Structures are given as structure tokens and as C-alpha cells.
User: What shape does this take?
Amino acid sequence: MDFALTDEQLMFRDLFHDFAEKEVAPVAEHNDRTEEPPHGLLARAASQGFLGATLPEAYGGAGMDYLTYTLLVEAIARHCLATSAAIGIHTCSRP
Assistant: This one.
């Protein structure tokens, strides 16, 4: 059995890491200190399709498989667990 990531999953992994480095890392410490929800950051995540990521596109989600979603959560959590949790809250099971 092959457990390697697909080309698409590798592409998404790189996208998630780039987003986390550019968008999450610079504001993570501030968000933790102030305990303010990162509204702007979540809006940018939503525009990338990261909120409701596992929902089918027909319902407004990105239709991501759960392994790809795990790569998203992992990349965000590397810099800010609270932001990762906030994104996770907006993800639910497929209908």
C-alpha cells in the first residue's frame, strides 16, 4: 500500500505552509496576548476556502478530503493553535 501524498495533496501542503508563514505567523503572538479573535486572518482563510473545507462545493465548501484538511490544520497549528482551532470549528462532516 502506498502512503505517499498525491501531487494535489503536496500542492495543497505547500499552499497551507505558505499561508501559515505569511498570514498566521506574523500575528500569532499578538492574538495570543490580546486574546482577540483574528477576524481579518479568518476572513483571509475563508477567501482561500479554508473554512468549511471538507464540505462539498455544492454547499459552499472546498470539497477537501480529510487528509488534505489535516495538512491544513497542521500547517496553521504550527504557528498558532488557537487559529487552527478556530478554522477547525468551521469544519463539519459531509451531509
Remarks:
- Residues 28 and 80 are 6 Å apart (CA to CA).
- The chain has a mean pLDDT of 91.
